[in-house]
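B., you asked whether I could sanity-check this one before it goes into the benchmark set. Here's the sequence:
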Amino acid sequence: MQLVLSILLDITLGIAILFTTYTLVVAMFGFRKEQVPYPMIPDRSRFCIFVPSHNEEGIIQATVENMHQLDYDPALFDIFFLADNCKDETAKRMKESIQRLGRSNFHVLERQVDDPNVRGKPHALQWGIQQLEHQDGFYKKYDLFMVLDADNFVDATLLKHFNSQYHSYPREEQPCMIQCYLDSKNANNVIARGYQVSYRISNRFFQLAKRRLGLNVAIGGTGFAITTEFLHELGGFKARSLTEDLEMQTIATTQGRRIAMNFAVRIYDEKPTGLKQSIVQKTRWAQGHWWNAFHHGPRLLKSLFHRQSMRQWWSKFDNVVYLFTMLNYGLAAFNLLLSLVAMAFGLVAEPHLPYVTYVFLINLVVHYIVIYPYAVYQDGAPKEKKRFLPDFILNIISIFLSGVVFTISSVLGLFKHRNQKVWVKTVHSVTSMDHGPLQGDGTVPSTKKAESKA
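And here's what the prediction gave me:
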């Protein structure tokens, strides 16, 4: 019995150390101030933007008006506001705003379905693409397909940067997807603030760090663009999970495709303010994450043994680590629980608890005392920087609570991962921002031509 316990404890502790060490090593490449590594070019790419919305009459007009500020040739992009199974006046509010703004390249698509098996964002996106393809073509008409959520605000120069970054690559190396910086619209209470702090850390020390290493970045559910060529090869937006972003990311990585990160422009997402709402949202994320790990993980692992470049192999390995990140949380919790029980009953000769504690203590110190302050001062809004010291303790409490919620949701998501049909909507109500968009006035950050591509 003692031997079995010792082996279990050593295995779980070893995995926790490996996961944590790898994550921290990659994070070190997030240091150093970022400059735009591509030259700005004239508007060229043709964009199709979908904004799927379900019962969003309270906020959709603010979203339409924000996207009216996009600084890009109107002849080269269309925005389709998709009213998906709405029971309120979302479609009416969309049309009113578009008419008031006089935008001929803003459109409304209305979808009503009774079958519960074809509801949700992925199905709505696929339906919309099919509608456009049947009307006057989709795949030949557009170069890049972009997905934004109904609550999103965007930087005015978003399309200019995506266009310039995409064409900065040689044709054979162009990315099939580009993800921009995900930011927060609101941080007005302890729950929403936890999201904002987490996003500050992940954007710089997870996304940007990977981009600098030449790795594929994570697709975040919104604020990303996909080439219509890649979509056409897949037969459209055929994601089947509750986390369609992770599914598309994993499929692309398995195929050896490149996924780029744009750190120069941002979208601003509304964060939940209630504990229950946060648990529900993160459980949905976890359900989709576990499903993708079990469904696509084996195929991704098998692809590691194919002939490929080092960049492709490392991106695949990194995606494997990302797919099973939540396993690390579960194993660490299991290790702590098993250590406490074993020590209480004297079943192990050596206490394992201190070793686990040291691993997580080092991780917490690095993230909250080093990484987090750096991320805020490099990437935060002026208001955040000014309030950093007075809000420091509150922010630490917020992100700690966010981590606890994520751990709970990871376990719940594991038990519910087979259910990829029931989608629980996150209620939105924020129509303004705690701070102005950092590039929202149409200005372009300083650029420089770099040898290594973004």
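One thing to flag: The longest strand covers residues 259-269. Otherwise nothing jumped out at me.
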